[in-house]
Amino acid sequence: MAGSGMKSLAKDTAIYGLSSILGRVLNWFLMPLHISIFTNTIEYGKVSRIYGLTALFLVLLTYGLETGFFRFMNKKEENADKVYSTSLITIGCTSLLFILFSICFITPISEWLRYTDHREHIMIMAIVVALDAFMTIPFAYLRQQKRPKRFAALKLAFIFFNIFFNLFFLVFCPWIKEAYPDFILNKFYHQDIGIGYIFLANLISTLAVLILLIPTTMKGLKIDFDKSLLGRLLKYSFPLLMLGLAGVISQTVAQLVYPYIFDSVEEADRQLGIYSACVKFSVIISMFIQAFRYAYEPFFFGKNKDGKDNTKSYADAMKYFIIFVLLIFLVVMFYIDIIQYIMHRIGRNYAIGLDVLPYAMMGEIFFGIYFNLSVWYKLTDKTKYGAYFSILGCVIQVVMNIVLVPIYGYIASAWATFACNLIIAAISYFIGQKYFPIKYDLKNIFLYFVLATVFYIAAMYPQIDNELLRMGYRTLFLIAFAAIVIKKDLPLSEIPIINRYFKRNK
């Protein structure tokens, strides 16, 4: 792993990654809890639809300002305190306006979203998404200040709060109600609220983290709003809104269009419940991408500030990123028997959708590559290209879902995600080479993709009835892939955490 810059990036990614992995794994266990309690796939489809909408509105409410914050914090001619203050005040005001707008127009909003049965669910999540949007700037400030441990601790705090309140409302309270009917808590608990408690748990957890984040928010804040600076920030950041939308639509297009392409909302929610539950197993790749993003944005903006040619570092980052996501892909697919066992145990109605997984994971991989490639237009201030690519991606996703899902079912949503991200990544690469040439190691990148594909086919194609023999056979290919990577590009002595053991032996 060449260079101290790569080691620093790897270290920060490891810290963000460990917290993200732990947090996502813990949070992932809520999915089995939810589908074991709400066995009707329609109910889980409703939860998935609401969370898909909140992801969309979170991007709209941050309007690319998180990346703009990093860009301007690392500009020599800008005042860092003023950048932080202006960004925080701006997002704070728009978040407050969003809450007020949601309160005033909750009825037409719920009718437009075809979610009229429980308008309170939409109102709760509107408050959650507004608070999340506000907190993006304090969290970005922690990343800018190179405080990944504090960042990770707060993110994990939310996960623990959310799990606790989910267990409290969905497990403990029903048990108390049944075991001790006269207990005072039963006066406040109403079982017919059902999935509403999932959203309520999220709101309480978000408020708790907001309180914990206040010291960080106030520490670097000097009230100094600069209207001129805001104009420059928005000019840079607003096209990135479309980039963010591409990522969200990549993950939530099904939640957005299914209610309109099936004969009934109930059937849409049933299909969506199956698809969403199975796609969640691709979370391992998406959380690695998230951890990498947390570390990589401060990394490349900081590198650019020193005025040197850092394109070699960006090329290395891409290669190592691809190595790790392909390794994750093989691990998940080679041990899919374990996933199938889990799905059959906790939700037999959902297990039929696991065929979407390889396409969903490849879609995530190419979205991660697309994010890596975005360095060229973020550093050259040509963020309008991010908007162009994202609009194209949105069109591809929506059209493929509308045309193919009624014919092939929910698996077409995974095909659409894969195709969309592959196309926009390819276009971004070719245009980026014109404006900001980066000599990516295409030879080895292509080699790793070919190896992963060949090993995947060779490992998955043979029909081996014995489960242990089948997984043992696949493990041989996993070891072979890892061995090739270690020999060519990733000596163990260069990997954070693992390298400690090599140093001791010297």
| Percent in helix | over 70%
User: Would you identify the regions where 5 or more consecutive residues have pLDDT less than 50?
Assistant: none
Order of helices and strands: HHHHHHHHHHHHHHHHHHHHH
Shape category: globular
Counting DSSP H or I runs of 4 or more residues, the number of helices is: 21
Would you tell me the overall average pLDDT? 81
Q: What is the total domain count?
A: 2
Radius of gyration: 23 Å
Structural write-up:
The protein is mostly helical and 506 residues long. Helix 5 crosses helix 10 and helix 12 (283-305) packs parallel to helix 15 (357-373). It folds into two domains: 26-263, no CATH class; 281-505, no CATH class. It has helices at residues 3-28, 30-37, 41-62, 65-73, 80-104, 106-112, 119-144, 148-179, 196-219, 227-261, 265-279, 283-305, 311-334, 336-346, 357-373, 375-379, 384-408, 411-435, 442-460, 467-488, 499-505. It is built from 21 helices and no strands. The relative contact order is 0.12.
Blueprint of the fold:
Layout: H1 3-28, H2 30-37, H3 41-62, H4 65-73, H5 80-104, H6 106-112, H7 119-144, H8 148-179, H9 196-219, H10 227-261, H11 265-279, H12 283-305, H13 311-334, H14 336-346, H15 357-373, H16 375-379, H17 384-408, H18 411-435, H19 442-460, H20 467-488, H21 499-505
Features of the shown structure:
mainly alpha; 506 residues; 80% helix; 21 helices; globular; single chain; 2 domains
Question: What is this structure, in a nutshell?
Answer:
This protein has 506 residues and is mostly helical.
